[in-house]
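Batch manifest, entry 17 of 40.
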Amino acid sequence: MVDVVRVLSTLALKGAVARLAAQYEAAHGVRIDADFAPTLALLQRLRGGEGADLVILTREGLDEMANEGHVVATSCVDLARSYVGLAVKAGAAHPDIATEAALRATLLDARAVAYSKLGASGILFAQLIERLGIAAEINARAVIIPQGFTAEKLVTGEADLAVQQISELKQVDGTEVIGPIPRDLQTPAVFSAGRMAASPKADAADHLLRYLASPDVAPVLRETGLEP
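Output type: structure tokens
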């Protein structure tokens, strides 16, 4: 019988975990049962008593869980760094977002921008457009989703620009990533993992943690839009 490790993970790692799960089970006989949601939604679920063996959250979220006793602090390890970027529908022109001025003009020129309300990327973007002084104009025609993949709104035609972690934008077929928001306008998110204190499978969870933090997974992280 194949053992199972229950993982609750931020959406940013969905592509990487999905690709790694099959090879991990083949090599170690352990199946990764993963569920994905924004960090803020996962924090609510964990505080509500939902169980898991291992969690992958933003570093800030994981520290909160460790401070509250939900996660074993000594098990926590950083996995990847992620930048927020923009995407368009496949085949569409790639507008200039290389500088603050270019990004501002591109956002104002867009028919509709899709971003997430709960995700770290959405919080950063909401703060950014306030700082650029264009929040009212952008939000008047924005498509703001509670959670999920913003690039899906490109495929449906509801938006012509999508904002999210690059690793999340890359999850949606039929779209193309333009690139990151200028790096001087953002602080990269760090995604980290830790073992749940109440996990009945401590050894299996710790083994998976070591694997996810190992150099072996670095190529997959890069291919899915993350930096190890």
